[in-house]
Amino acid sequence: MESMSEVDRNIAEAPLPTKGTLRRRKSLGYQMTRFVAFNFRMLKMVTRAHH
Fold this sequence. Notes:
75% of the residues lie in helices and 0% in strands. By secondary structure, it is mainly alpha-helical. The protein has a domain at 17-49. It is elongated. The N and C termini lie far apart (64 Å).
C-alpha cells in the first residue's frame, strides 16, 4: 500500500463544513446579502481614499 503524501494527508484531515455552512453557501438570499455588504464596504473604502 502506498503512503499518503503530506498534501494528501492535510486534505484528508481538513475539517468538513457544517450543515449550516453548506446551507448558507447554497442560499441565494444569503449570497446576495453578503455581495451587497462586500460592495458597500469597497465603496466606502474607495470614497475615503479619494479625499
